[in-house]
Amino acid sequence: MVGVKEVMASKRILLSLENSRLGDMALDAAAGLATELQAQLQGLFVEDINLLNLAGLPFAREVGHASATERRILLSDIERSLKAGAMHAQQLLAKTAERLQLQWSFKVVRGQLIADVLSMANEADLIIFGQMKTIQNESPILPLKQHIQQALVVFDGSPASQHALMTALLVARLNATTLSVLVESNTTESKNALREIATSKLTTYLSKTRFFYTQTPHLTHKIQALLKEKKGILVIGKTHHQFSYKALLQLLGSINCPVILAT
Fold this sequence. Notes:
This protein is an alpha/beta fold. The chain has nine helices and eleven strands. Strand 3 and strand 4 (about 70) form a beta hairpin. This is Universal stress protein family protein.
């Protein structure tokens, strides 16, 4: 059985530390995979250019959570928050990498989250996005540590989805949790064939593996339902036909959990 190590070319894992609070789940997954695969951990913090452009408009306003008072959004406030967020993310990444003796790097770019991360896809074998949440004008605070209840992978038989399957298997093993395989198929014949392929690769983990099925038009809704049932991490192939730039952005915003792209 070919594992993740055998299909990783550059031995690099790109962790997107976006303009949201970085979930412990994403960092733990990235660090665990990097340790197991002896890979370099690359942190990327993207300063959202759309948010900065919005702050530069004279009519931009925000409403305070506690006071419900409306006030103008100042560009200087947003830049300060982004700088603080980047610094906090770098410190967290450094602390984790040094504790686990991992090679690591950190980079800040100004642009669009998905586009800038995907532009670096050729430099990494795995890309990990933390849960999406719009940044507020406040100090970055990490959410409470959450247990990974499942590693959910979309499997359609393609080479990228097979890489995703083995990555999800590794995530499940590292966290001693359930592996959920979502078989994407539009016919009964291909559904059975795909399950047989996946089963042959998961022989030592079948007792902790669940299989689900969906047709392509219902894929996103099925993913959302499964992750609502059990909090976890989604693993998909980067070249999956269903997740274009726009679709991936919508998916990240709707499931509120880390996503791993297997390249």
